[in-house]
From TrEMBL:
UniProt-recorded Gene Ontology molecular function terms: hydrolase activity; RNA endonuclease activity
Presence of the UniProt keyword Nuclease in the record: yes
Alphabetized InterPro entries for the sequence: YicC-like_C, YicC-like_N, YicC/YloC-like
Organism whose genome encodes this protein: Candidatus Reconcilbacillus cellulovorans
Protein name: YicC family protein
Keywords: Endonuclease, Hydrolase, Nuclease
């Protein structure tokens, strides 16, 4: 079991760049991966997204790649002579029109945007860059996974403890259910005794019929059986290594519905009190599950 909350970072030198990758993960209903890379490295977005989705199955994940040049070879410098010549011609026209004597210096030319640039990596260099950046991402992902697993272990322990509490309350419900019917039968008989000063055969039959109707109306045996099934499945999922967040959430929804039905059928203060406790604990469990992958 893993949480959806985690952070990982990795730094390494790749193709003359100091590359740093930060990966942040928080809870989300689905899988949403956002990748931010340097403008000239947009070709890395899709490989990085696939690498992340192969490891992190669910969550809102932000991947940020920053790169700093460590060295530049002279052969990698490119001058856009067409842009230089166009600027020079424009400067000539301006000078002729204004009658000025100023001329563009080399410093002025170098200040022109995009005149001098570092040549993009070749296809061979690009393949090497992709491999290096993905290796850096894998290291960052390993850190994220470690953090998510550690947080998942804490969540599992918390959920297991809460499940044990709810199961204990469920057992109390099972013990109380037969008493509710018997208590109703005794109350009904006392009232008839008070009204008729004794119970004849007809009244006894009427009591039995009324008790049978009441017992059928407040019978919670089916709900208790389904709760047992939901809790058993929940306990098994806590030990799964695959993403189980959605399954756990579904089971808790079903358990909440069964407990609600028990509360609607209950005509006993003790059962009503247990139902309130169970619903409160189920809500806390649902909050925790929103962070599970």
């Amino acid at each position: 079991m893993r949480s959806m909350t985690g952070f990982g970072q990795s730094v390494r030198e790749v193709c003359g760049y100091r590359v740093r990758i930060d990966i942040r993960s928080v809870n989300h209903r689905y899988s949403e991966v956002t990748v931010r890379v340097p403008r000239e490295w947009t070709f890395l977005e899709e490989p990085l997204r696939k690498a992340v989705q192969a490891v992190l199955k669910r969550g809102k994940i932000d991947v940020t790649v920053t790169a700093e040049r460590q060295r530049v070879e002279a052969s990698e410098i490119r001058i856009d002579w067409a842009v230089v010549e166009a600027y020079l011609q424009a400067a000539e026209r301006i000078r002729d029109r204004l009658g000025a004597d100023d001329r563009l210096s080399v410093r002025d030319v170098l200040a022109i945007p995009d005149v001098v640039r570092i040549e993009d990596v070749s296809q061979q260099g690009r393949d090497e860059l992709v491999r290096g950046v993905l290796a850096c991402a894998e290291e960052a992902l390993a850190h994220v996974s470690t953090m998510r697993e550690a947080e998942g272990a804490h969540l599992r322990a918390d959920l297991a403890g809460r499940l044990a509490s709810i199961r204990a309350w469920k057992e109390s419900l099972s013990a109380l259910a037969p008493e509710v019917v018997e208590q109703y039968r005794l109350r009904l008989r006392r009232r008839i005794d008070e009204l008729l000063d004794g119970v004849d055969d007809v009244a006894e039959q009427r009591i039995a019929a009324e008790v049978a109707i009441f017992a059928d109306r407040c019978d919670i045996s089916e709900e208790l059986t389904r709760l047992d099934s939901h809790f058993d499945q929940f306990a098994r999922l806590l030990d799964e290594s695959e993403p189980v967040g959605r399954k756990l959430d579904f089971l808790l929804q079903e358990a909440f519905r069964e407990v609600n039905t028990i509360g609607a059928k209950a005509s006993d203060a003790r059962i009503a009190s247990l139902v309130v406790e169970m619903k409160a604990e189920l809500e806390k469990m649902r909050e925790q599950i929103q962070n599970i992958e």
